[in-house]
Amino acid sequence: MFSDEIKKYSWANTTAAIAAKTAADVERALVKQHLDDDDFMALISPAAAPYLEYMAQRARQITQKRFGKVISMYIPLYVSNACTNSCVYCGFNIHNKFARLTLSPEQIKAECEAIRSLAPFENLLIVTGEHPQKAGVDYLAQTLDICRPFFNNLTIEVMPLAAEDYEKLTHHGLNGVVCFQETYNGNRYGIYHPAGMKANYQWRLDGFDRMGLAGVHKIGMGVLIGLEDWRTDITMMARHLRYLRRNYWKTRFSVNFPRMRPSEGHFQPNVVMSDRELAQATWAFRLFDNDVDISYSTRERPEFRNHMATLGVTSMSAGSKTDPGGYAVCPQSLEQFAVSDERSPREVAEAIRAEGYDVVWKDWDKIYD
To answer: CA separation (Å) from 110 to 77, 103, 107, 115?
Structure first.
């Protein structure tokens, strides 16, 4: 399990190693075909700042070679904001006083119909708070069954599950799982997750192994930018990705770097990442792993997303509502976080096409199921 692997790496030593990188280290990494984590640290270090234009062009070339000039579109469907956790930065925190909503089967179907009226989405991300009684495995299985006739590709972002539960859900149409470790700083993880299921750092960290063991087709990873030093956190995620590729080589992978946005908890980020730094992290990841799907959500500004669509990003959400029932049932319920890109899916698609890229709403036809 990765909880054993990560013990090889010191957070403090990794932070110091990144800070110590020089221009020579960056130049050495930029001419290599296969990068190790030491090269990755050079590319996200402050020493790489003068080389960002070159990194951007390399990222564009690699992405076009591996993925073509396309952006894959997806949309989230929040089905429950019930949660047992006390995450200090999240709007779904159990201590936030608001009416919780868990959608019924009829409401889930109505949301699916509303999403289909927005654009021809085939990639659906189903999201819940972490509440085993309100949104447990049986509820998730039922939700997948309801959504499957509407969408070809179903991904969940829910509480970490046991391997047998992930395997069970694959029989209900599950294609992928997204899980955000939030931070790999085990010594400070508990500060942000003081109570609830999410307080178990090791259970969350090893959840990705359980996904791989269950044969999940695609695994999505991410750290929440704003908690700890972003360079160290992203380096730990790069190491985690490389470990997962070694052990679950049949699986596809994606990464995301969500920057903290306002929420009901009014948590102020400890770390602020600029657009330039987010671009640097994106390009470093593309050079480190040529085949990983890099995803941007509607947390980011429209102009920035338009630009990055040509420079390494391969998938984007659009038209997102982060509150249960936000598309049709109950648009006034509490959202998990505020979105920054409020354009409609068709407006996002038009902007991407204006950049010379094609928009892909699905990965395959039903005839191949």
So the answer is: 11, 10, 5, 9
